[in-house]
């Protein structure tokens, strides 16, 4: 028997379930997504579930269950079931689907904290950290930066200087799985019932960190490649595990690119400290590109705002704008097609 409160079940979720027409059925949380089924943690144990037709054909691909979702299911065997409903998502980490302009992909839902894992080697990237951070903040998920493999040689001052524009906005931990004392502060940061998603590139040590936090091997890991100096890709799916006496940890495969699905320019302005200067611009709708009396451009000229940070802000702002416009056009087209379909149905009905 599982105590679902340890997995995050609470009164708010209970109320959401009461609004479903399937409230009389069992509920559980998606622990992993496979190609043809879903592994669901329920009070009775772990089940393999498939999707009911109303879910499979009635939702967009990004609305289908992802790791962390709370679902309602009907059992038809001892350890099998059919998912008939998905409770409304909260704090869902999305990214833009690879190769698309406006399609989004759900990585994990009902997440409290996002552990952005970077390794202190050639893989370290401030720009990648910014991307993960922006998307987490957009969904009211608390970002935490984990700088892993601190046993390697690195210039701590340079690292901290490169992160100072975002370092004051989130906790930063330096960790090494070879030094258990560096894992303990991270462990204390995870509370019972909380859900934490681990995100980062392949080879940064996400699975190894989870193993260290759980004090047992829950995910397979591989050795560092001698030729590339990077870890071989091991995680192949998003999977959830329960940390004994604490929260829920969600491991994710390494991603090469993490496209934004943010449509809130205020999030970017606040994270990059542009908002602090923008209030002094002459024009309220200043784009901070070439307008006269732009306080942001003046801050760059005076060396108060870092040029690299400003360029990163513009790049992500442009990317977010493209996503917003593309998504708006897609919705507009969808509404137009739905209207045409309704007119066709009406004509058929009149002819009959």
From TrEMBL:
Highest taxon, organism lineage: Bacteria
CDD domains: YjeQ_EngC
Binding site for Zn(2+): 281, 286, 288, 294
Binding site for GTP: 148-151, 200-208
Compartments reported by the entry: Cytoplasm
Keyword Metal-binding appears in the UniProt entry: yes
Functional summary from the UniProt entry: One of several proteins that assist in the late maturation steps of the functional core of the 30S ribosomal subunit. Helps release RbfA from mature subunits. May play a role in the assembly of ribosomal proteins into the subunit. Circularly permuted GTPase that catalyzes slow GTP hydrolysis, GTPase activity is stimulated by the 30S ribosomal subunit.
Protein name: Small ribosomal subunit biogenesis GTPase RsgA
Annotated organism of origin: Myroides guanonis
Gene designation: rsgA
